[in-house]
């Protein structure tokens, strides 16, 4: 019998409002298991609103958001997180007053699989040597780039099925951005599905399988990363900041 693959994430006719401002106007988007899909578009196009809606953080939304085949619209954000849907927001979300190690422990607490702390710390130390050196430092005293790495490491420690990343490279030194993008590739290899918002379009398209372009709250283009990389006209039209 033929098996029909259910996408990891399937969004249909997603509409979202802030008060009376109608921001998302019927977004359709899907991400298959193990894919890395990039969401691009100008400032104000609705990218953050889209991932916040997926994470369950926008109160006024209609349409359908299915995660692993299950409708989650109306499900609280924490329940979506427990289902394996992690979100790393644009504004860093490390917990001030806690050390790097304690922040990572929070991610572990959310993990349904509960890996050993030492195992997770070893993995993080190997990937992000900067965090290894700072395990017992108050996380708030780290640089912006280091805090962003910690937010990503903490999300990964929860062993999610899917991670939503909102402009992770924003304001980060190029050398750290390269490290971070290598890490996304290794997460993908480990089977984690990723939806990535990224302003650095050419960098993102190099690691992505597919991409969507949003403009004024609508999907105006979708295609493989390779097709979009070749299409300079479409990049100039919709991705200029
Ligand atoms: N809390 C809010 N209240 C009212 N309007 C908002 C709010 N947050 C965002 N908006 C508006 O919604 C629109 C889409 O914003 P959104 O942050 O989703 O865009 P974006 O594509 O992520 O842009 P950027 O690249 O600048 O982050 C913008 O016009 C923005 O001004």
TrEMBL record:
Source species, domain of life? Bacteria
User: What stretch or stretches form a coiled coil here?
Assistant: none
Enumerate the PROSITE patterns for this protein. Answer: ABC_TRANSPORTER_1, ABC_TRANSPORTER_2
Q: Which Pfam families match?
A: ABC_tran
| UniProt GO MF annotations | ATP binding
The record, for CDD domains, names:
ABC_TM1139_LivF_branched (cd03224)
* Keywords on record: Amino-acid transport, ATP-binding, Cell membrane, Membrane, Nucleotide-binding, Transport
Q: Where would I find the ABC transporter domain in this sequence?
A: 9-241
Family from the record? Belongs to the ABC transporter superfamily.
Q: What is this protein called?
A: ABC transporter ATP-binding protein
């Amino acid at each position: 019998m033929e098996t029909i693959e259910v996408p990891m994430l399937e969004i249909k006719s997603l509409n979202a409002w802030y008060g009376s401002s109608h921001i998302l106007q019927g977004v359709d988007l899907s991400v298959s298991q193990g894919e890395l899909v990039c969401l691009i578009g100008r400032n104000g196009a609705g990218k953050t609103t889209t991932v916040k809606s997926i994470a369950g953080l926008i109160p006024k939304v209609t349409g359908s958001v299915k995660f692993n085949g299950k409708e989650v619209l109306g499900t609280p954000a924490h329940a979506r997180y427990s289902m394996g849907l992690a979100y790393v927001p644009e504004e860093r979300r490390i917990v001030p007053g806690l050390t790097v190690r304690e922040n990572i422990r929070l991610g572990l607490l959310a993990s349904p699989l509960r890996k050993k702390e030492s195992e997770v710390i070893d993995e993080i130390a190997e990937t992000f040597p900067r965090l290894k050196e700072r395990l017992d430092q108050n996380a708030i005293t780290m640089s912006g780039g280091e805090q962003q790495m910690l937010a990503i490491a903490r999300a990964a420690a929860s062993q999610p099925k899917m991670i939503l990343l909102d402009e992770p490279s924003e304001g980060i030194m190029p050398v750290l951005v390269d490290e971070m993008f290598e890490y996304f590739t290794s997460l993908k290899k480990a089977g984690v599905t990723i939806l990535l918002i990224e302003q650095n379009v050419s960098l993102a398209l190099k690691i992505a399988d597919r991409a969507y372009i949003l403009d004024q709250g609508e999907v105006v283009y979708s295609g493989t990363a390779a097709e979009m990389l070749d299409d300079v006209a479409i990049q100039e039209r919709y991705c200029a900041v």
